[in-house]
Amino acid sequence: MDDLVTARLTLHPMSRSEAERVVAGEPDSGARWAPGYPAEGDVAGARRFLSVCASTGDPQPFGAYEIRRREDGRAIGGLGFHGPPDHNGSVTIGYGLIPAAHGKGYASEALRMLLALARAHGITRVQGDTDHDNIASQHVMTAVGMQLVAEDERLKYYESTWSDAAAITDPSS
């Protein structure tokens, strides 16, 4: 699968070997990791991706992506799907950035592209959640059009739904 490109980012679909390196915290000679990458969430996402690969095969395009800045090619975080769509066409997403990349709009830009990819592949619902105290993540999901649909004592739950599987023509809007 090809990289997904936004105005400032490249979303690189991870291979199994790349995910294994993220889990081990050991880049290969060609990897360009920004200081602080991979963070704990990146490692957890890579582990989840490897688990899905082991149980059902490579789920791409519904796998893990490394978020890279286009200006220097450095990995600054990750995002992706928790696995392939369920029988209702629903997926769950997660994302995260290294602290140095916070507050620059990168998460919203990356998530918009991921939502566009999901919709273009016939997904009818994308779900995500965040802790009550993670205001930044709540802002990101709201900024990309996800709606708060529920909350419990620990988490707030967001989703985007589409009644059709039409592709978004401009995912950066």
TrEMBL record:
Indicate the secretion signal residues. Answer: none
Checking SUPFAM superfamilies in the record gives: Acyl-CoA N-acyltransferases (Nat) (SSF55729)
Query: One GO term of the cellular component aspect?
Result: cytoplasm
Extract the Gene3D superfamilies matched here. 3.40.630.30
Domain named N-acetyltransferase is located at: 9-169
Q: Which GO terms describe its molecular function?
A: protein N-terminal-serine acetyltransferase activity; protein-N-terminal-alanine acetyltransferase activity
Q: Does the keyword Transferase apply?
A: yes
Keyword tags: Transferase
The species is: Streptomyces himalayensis subsp. aureolus
Spell out the InterPro entries in the cross-references: Acyl_CoA_acyltransferase (IPR016181), GNAT_dom (IPR000182), Ribosomal_N-acetyltransferase (IPR051908)
Protein name listed in UniProt: GNAT family N-acetyltransferase
